[in-house]
Here is the input.
Amino acid sequence: MALILVYNNAMNRMERYYREEWQPMPYNVGGTLKVREFRGASKSNILWTDRRAMNSWNTFRRFWGSPIFVGYAFKRIWEGGHSSQSQHYAGTAFDLGQTLTATQRTRLRTAATNSGAWSYVEPAYLTPRWVHVDDRFGTPACSIGGFPALSIGSKGVYVLILQDALNALGYTIGLDGIYGRNTSYAVRNFQRAQGLAVLGNVNCATWVRLTTLANGIG
Ligand SMILES: [Zn+2]
Here is the structure.
């Protein structure tokens, strides 16, 4: 049984679901994406994603028309295994088609682009053994890409990454995906301890420091 936190983009609210490993993910249509597929190698009892990413999966799965092997999707940042500002930590990225032949995988990658479902399809030269697709939300805080800037009132999967990383580094706060006073307080403490500008909101410099420190330490 996993607790699944879902940011409902359309309603701008966080939702909570309890699901067994064999059950479909919230907002999944037709049982095409099970909890165990979404979690991949993650051992976490809490998972998260957003409604937009689930809709992108539904669109792509319908476009492809048959089952798609999911190798990895969600990971918590302290579990590591991906780059420090990977969309896998947001629960909005999928690594697909590891069991396919190279020819079939090329077809899957082309379909991922043609479906229009994803905001990013990784080129084959970067991930030749699987197809990485993701659904990014907002403008990245850093020009090199990554996670969006956050401040009081922000909600969603990136706030969950922020809270999760702060917790992993000893700044104990709740994991609810809502950037309130407690989160802002923890961010200030982190910024002060790190010699960063004490803003209480999360800009590029704070994301880089935080995600570099928290990535893979679990
Ligand atoms: Zn990936």
